[in-house]
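Quick start: what a row looks like.
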Amino acid sequence: MRAAMAMLVAATMLAACSGIEPEVTVPDLAPDAVVADWLVALDGLDLAALAAMTTPENVALIAGAENGFTTEQMAAILDDGLPSATARSYWTTFRGGFSALLGTPIADIQVSGVGRFAVDDREFAAVGIQVDDAGTEILVAATDAGWRVDLVATVGPALAVQIRRLVAQIVDEGDDAVARRYARTAATSLGAALARDPENRALDLEVEAIEDLPVDLSG
């Protein structure tokens, strides 16, 4: 089901430009509470809250892989986040696809359980969501600022080839620090998805290819 959600949402993301949303502060919540609040923000298209509940490099890898962002655009997103028009277009499409997949309004989706796991030195949690007999899971990652929804881990497997190509482009063209940040995020988050679906050989190969890129993934 999670893979189906990934294909549905990723296939319909849009790009635009201009404007930056104000920042908001997210309290340090448990993984299930973060997902519950993220669902509320998604339902209301609260762009500032959605930005605060994710990380810029994580969202940029999904949006950039789908929409062919340049290396310069990817670098700018690390400093400024997605432009508000791009963010609104992306989250509007994501909300519609997510609701259609589960066959219910976002407001009716219930959090149904949490399972924690680790990938290398990074802690993740798989938060189940449920509507009647339909369900999927949202993967969240532990960060210095608390738990954040990890879109690459959640919907990235359907875009793994595009993500790997985008990261390779950034490694080839971009600043070393920018390349390292994106490559590390892609490898770790897709690695978390692989931990939930260890028989996914295609995903495994893409993670290996990212790890083999000429960039330092440590630190």
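That is the whole record. Residues 1-27 have pLDDT under 50 and may be disordered. Residues 99 and 149 are 17 Å apart (CA to CA).
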